[in-house]
UniProtKB/TrEMBL annotation, chains A, B:
<dbReference type="InterPro" id="IPR015802">
    <property type="entry name" value="Cu_amine_oxidase_N3"/>
</dbReference>
<keyword id="KW-0325">Glycoprotein</keyword>
<dbReference type="GO" id="GO:0005507">
    <property type="term" value="F:copper ion binding"/>
</dbReference>
<feature type="active site" description="Schiff-base intermediate with substrate; via topaquinone">
    <location>
        <position position="411"/>
    </location>
</feature>
<keyword id="KW-1015">Disulfide bond</keyword>
<feature type="modified residue" description="2',4',5'-topaquinone">
    <location>
        <position position="411"/>
    </location>
</feature>
<dbReference type="InterPro" id="IPR036460">
    <property type="entry name" value="Cu_amine_oxidase_C_sf"/>
</dbReference>
<dbReference type="InterPro" id="IPR015800">
    <property type="entry name" value="Cu_amine_oxidase_N2"/>
</dbReference>
<comment type="similarity">
    <text>Belongs to the copper/topaquinone oxidase family.</text>
</comment>
<keyword id="KW-0479">Metal-binding</keyword>
<feature type="signal peptide">
    <location>
        <begin position="1"/>
        <end position="22"/>
    </location>
</feature>
<keyword id="KW-0801">TPQ</keyword>
<dbReference type="InterPro" id="IPR049948">
    <property type="entry name" value="Cu_Am_ox_TPQ-bd"/>
</dbReference>
<protein>
    <recommendedName>
        <fullName>Amine oxidase</fullName>
        <ecNumber>1.4.3.-</ecNumber>
    </recommendedName>
</protein>
<comment type="subunit">
    <text>Homodimer.</text>
</comment>
<keyword id="KW-0186">Copper</keyword>
<dbReference type="GO" id="GO:0048038">
    <property type="term" value="F:quinone binding"/>
</dbReference>
Length: 673, 673
């Protein structure tokens, strides 16, 4: 279906030859710059000029790097001679005349090199402008104004927000959003105060309300006790925390060359995508014995987030978000606050994305990078077995963290990529922000005689049960591209030797996954150790060179697998999947997720049951949280943390931090304490 | 069987009236002081004077606080008028004339107030002197000297260590230990270099070798590559870590009144026991709204550690340690190194225990306490839904850590109790130190045609598979002593309303455990949320006031449950048990664990199936690690961390850190950076 459009090439080259900046890129995976965004916009608006008739202005839904082939990147990266980076191509998804377009722009040629109309199910990521436009529609909609009036609310204190509607088996879908509204009088904590029962449905192509419901009136939860701004709270304050900082002699302790970070024994590239958020690429670890950097992670990012709510009633049943594919985890990044979001030794990076009009938007301080020392111990030992000698040898643990916070509506996700000198990559996720509340008629659980699908947190305030599933794309390249996936099962064995009075022990039964079917894993059922190994290389004692996956808290989806939203989120059915590398398989829930039907997820891709042994493979890992809200989550949630670790497992011949010296504690001279 | 001996009372009162110090104790749970240890020794040696015949000197195996009744402690603690702390009583286990004695000494009366001979199975904790005495026996044992000579080793470079022997169904047992030996020529990393095949059995009552085996000779693993002291390693060093510190204006940020710590909204007592190590008592959290401290944890400590190795061959099958009950987790505490074991803002506490002769031994810097700031976020939110207003409100997370490191032979356990202003208590365990190695004939896995029960880490060096199970005693008193244990199961439900296109959702099914049988839980089988609640108090909206248990990595024992060592370690059969509080039920594997038969474990106590609803209850939680060694663990292990969290769950009416202000970052004036 590709409809290549070549005629722009010559024209655009002439026009923009003065502001070429493509070749100035340090790295082919660098995020798109504002000038590149502007260039893309100009090129696309030439091809799709606005028409005076309604709805015919092209709208940018996704503008991202069309990554070069992996082989191209690797040969650029590892070439002995300095070669210019491969050409920059930008992949655009746009809405135009009620259709979804996929457009590829070649920046060096300054032209569209491919475009097609997407004919499949689902719709592209929502841009921010259209969400805002939809959210203000109720204010000029008579029945809504009536609803506000009926509730005795001041309409100037009402704000509305948009919700994706999912798919429930409809044969034909439109591009719809639901709008729900909140009250801000007396508190900015709007999520605590919904206009429950009121719901507008917006046709996004027409940008108008096509359905409206005012089902019932319940009391508006009080503003009292919901405020979270220190400036608005009244004494007493507490608990009182005293001054504390991470202190370094020379911050930053890492080097930033463009977007490439080098620190201690690590080197990696930090990218940004409007949909995925942070992308870590080409992470390599320096092997002191081999005296070279060795590949670990070609590319890692959050591919999708699935957040299903568990209230099946008429006005809540559809509530399930795909925070990446529907709302854009990258465009939801919040500017990080120095000293609170990140410690005083942090450095910050901005991020840019294209808005609905194709214009660049800056997110200042979207990333922070900092060296972390939490008082932890990297390794230690005290030896007292040798007469007349006590040996104590200790190394403190210092790590490097790359952080982004993405605030998708009410929830704030703290996303950390932490690099450890021991070779581990720890991925941390913190959940904080504000619960989604359903207003009810109850003030005490004693009045509740039915399932309210949540916890009563305060008067009329129900914190709805829900889950968070985060699916990570982890293209590990363990010491090279050709890898295998190994399941080591710890199995109980019976002792056969009659002389031995012991009856049993456990041992390791190792299986290498041949095809995708062998690598679908629900964690927690058996004691398993999982690793991606390089079957073409062995350590000196003959072990497979690998990295293990150390899961954090394990959760499984609890909805039925044939339920519509779960079909769309079928990528959460297993905690682990392994696929052969395929450039087009990036988004676990599919490219067009809004109103998708589950026909483009890992679950469908892996039905082909492709071979994955000694191939370039991708590990997909889903971390999950079931969230039963508690009163401590009201009116704002203390961070709930989880994560996982990629840990070298027979990757090094020995402990890679054996020869690390303890850093000196930082202290200044001539200080007034 | 208690054999009270009263006649000492008057006598001892006269003698020691001058050096009374008992009443000077700040807290009835304070650890035993050196003077108290001396006093106990004097009192006991009067009653059991040494005899000239062999083996009739009393040996102190355990000297610990005989805790006052909980009701006594609580009424002392919460009495409105200042009352003197209850009398100090010391509980002693000693070996005398090949018998185990239990003796209670009343320090204010300066007398023995109870003593009995223990007639049950098993033996007391090993003291350090007898372990040393056993470990040197081989050096005067001819056949051993022959074995060393046969291997061409220099006996002055051989050291030996002692191993508990367990129980394998023997009808009659003796107090035996096995001795294995290691080579230190060229490296202090002795555990890497066993004299494999050589094993002496020592009768501890006779203190002589009663059996000796030299089964086979395998190559001695090389010293090369096993050294871990920076001073002995050769360049290149790396990865290079730069100066970094936790910095505070005023350290410590906590108050230490005796052994009672108060910090932010927490108050708790830090104790020490020669067997258990650190004991946290009477932890209460200040409720800003109620303006009072509320009880959380009456007493928490590691009750037992079970470390079974998975090599079932003749010279390894018995290898399973009970690091608390056999070796004394407290007496194994290592002195913490400032700046490496703990950050620069840490304060240190010493610990004391009684040695074999009843004399006090000091462990300098056994504890450190420090405020921790790891760059984490306590809570945050960015709000963009309100027109013309961006709200960002963030609080950094600062916590307080109490740390002890216990080095039981080769392994170093980092034990952290971390208190969070949000009301959580996080318990962290780090495993580091040195693996236990079996020497084999292999240099490459290709030569291996059988199960070697471990990972080949280097030439002739097999890291044996093993587990670590740590069982925590958690006497939670959630806002009072009478508590219940609640299991909330997340269950899939079908949507019944035909109008709703969704098919399913999950909801919470809550069960309160009536008896001990209801509270035996293997985690991971079902999605569960566990909490200890106070059924007599409710929050304003009517929720049960509680604390949730958030498990870390979940592991189950893999040995058969009727295998002898597993019978002894039956307390690991479930991750969670709940018992009614019983002062005598402290040690999950029994009081006399060495060679125990499993007749005094949680598994046997709970067979009575006592009522636990609305009672003073104790939660027992077992954290487990299966350890398949990797080459990165050689020659010293990077720390592997796990833990669990006790998290307020409808304990507070709202987020208890809502009104916390961000601490200022610490900085000095007049500094030369």
């Amino acid at each position: 279906m590709k409809n290549f459009i070549f005629f722009f090439i010559v024209f655009t080259t002439i026009i923009w030859s003065s502001n070429v900046e493509c070749s100035s890129h340090l790295h082919p995976l660098d995020p798109i710059t504002p000038s590149e965004i502007n260039l893309v916009r100009t090129i696309i608006l030439k091809a799709y000029p606005p028409e005076t008739s309604k709805n015919s202005t092209i709208a940018f839904q996704y503008v991202g790097l069309d990554e070069p082939q992996k082989s191209t990147i690797l040969s650029w990266k590892y070439s002995k001679t300095k070669t210019p980076p491969p050409a920059r191509r930008i992949y655009v998804i746009a809405r135009f005349k009620k259709q979804s377009l996929e457009i590829i722009v070649d920046l060096s040629r300054r032209s569209i090199v491919g475009s097609k109309v997407y004919k499949g199910h689902g719709y592209p990521m929502l841009n921010i402008q259209e969400q805002v436009a939809a959210s203000v529609l109720p204010f000029s909609y008579g029945p809504f104004k009536e609803s506000v009036k009926k509730r005795g609310l001041n309409i100037s204190e009402v704000v509305c927000s948009d919700f994706s509607v999912g798919w429930f088996g409809e044969k034909k879908t439109k591009r719809l959003l639901k709008i729900k509204c909140y009250y801000t009088e007396g508190s900015v904590n709007l999520y605590m105060r919904p206009l429950e029962g009121v719901e507008a449905t917006v046709d996004m192509d027409e940008m108008k309300i096509v359905d409206y419901k005012d089902r019932y009136v319940v009391p508006m939860p009080k503003a009292e006790g919901t405020e979270y701004r220190a400036s608005k709270l009244k004494p007493p304050f507490g608990p009182i925390l005293k001054d504390i900082s991470l202190m370094q002699h020379a911050a930053p302790a890492f080097n930033l060359h463009g977007n490439t970070v080098s620190w201690a024994n690590w080197e990696f590239h930090v990218g940004f995508d409007v949909r995925a958020g942070p992308i870590i690429s080409l992470a390599s670890v320096y092997d002191l014995e081999m005296q070279k950097y060795r590949q670990v992670l070609y590319r890692g990012f959050i591919s999708e987030l699935f957040v299903p709510y568990q209230d099946p009633t008429e006005d809540w049943y559809y509530t399930s978000y795909f925070d990446s594919g529907e709302f854009g985890f990258g465009q939801s990044a919040s500017s990080l606050e120095p000293l609170t979001d990140c410690p005083s030794n942090a450095e910050f990076l901005d991020a840019f994305f294209a808005d609905a009009n194709g214009k660049p938007v800056k997110i200042p301080n979207a990333f922070c990078i900092f060296e972390k020392y939490a008082g932890d111990i990297m390794w230690r030992h005290t030896e007292v077995a040798i007469p007349n000698e006590v040996i104590t040898e200790v190394r403190p643990d210092v790590t490097l963290v790359v952080r982004m916070v993405s605030t998708v509506g009410n929830y704030d996700y703290i996303i950390d990529w932490e690099f450890k000198p021991s070779g581990s990559i720890k991925v941390g996720v913190g959940l904080t922000g504000i619960l989604e509340i359903k207003a009810g008629t109850y003030t005490n659980t004693e009045e509740v005689k039915e399932d309210i699908y949540g916890t009563l947190l305060a008067d009329y305030t129900i914190g709805t049960y829900h889950d968070h599933f985060l699916t990570y794309y982890l293209d590990l390249d363990i010491d090279g591209e050709h890898n295998s996936f190994v399941k080591n099962t710890l199995e109980t064995a019976r002792v056969k030797d009659r002389k031995i009075p012991r009856k049993s022990y456990w041992t390791v039964v190792s299986e290498t996954a041949k095809t995708e079917a062998d690598a679908k894993i629900k964690l927690g059922l058996k004691p398993l150790e999982l690793a991606v190994v390089n079957p073409n290389k062995k350590t000196k004692p003959g072990n497979k060179i690998g990295y293990g996956l150390i899961p954090g808290s394990v959760s499984h989806p609890l909805m039925l697998s044939d339920d519509f939203q779960q079909i769309r989120a079928a990528f959460t059915n297993y905690n682990v999947w392994v696929t052969p590398y395929n450039k087009s398989e990036k988004w676990a829930g599919g490219l067009f997720v809004d109103r998708s039907r589950g026909d483009d997820t890992i679950a469908t891709w892996t039905q082909r049951n492709r071979e994955i042994e000694n191939k370039d493979i991708v590990l997909w890992y889903t971390m999950g949280f079931h969230h039963v809200p508690s009163q401590e989550d009201f009116p704002i949630m203390p961070t709930l943390t989880s994560g996982f670790e990629l840990r070298p497992t027979n990757f090094f011949e020995r402990n890679p931090v054996l020869k690390t010296k303890s850093p000196e504690p930082a202290h200044w001279s001539n200080c007034t304490k």
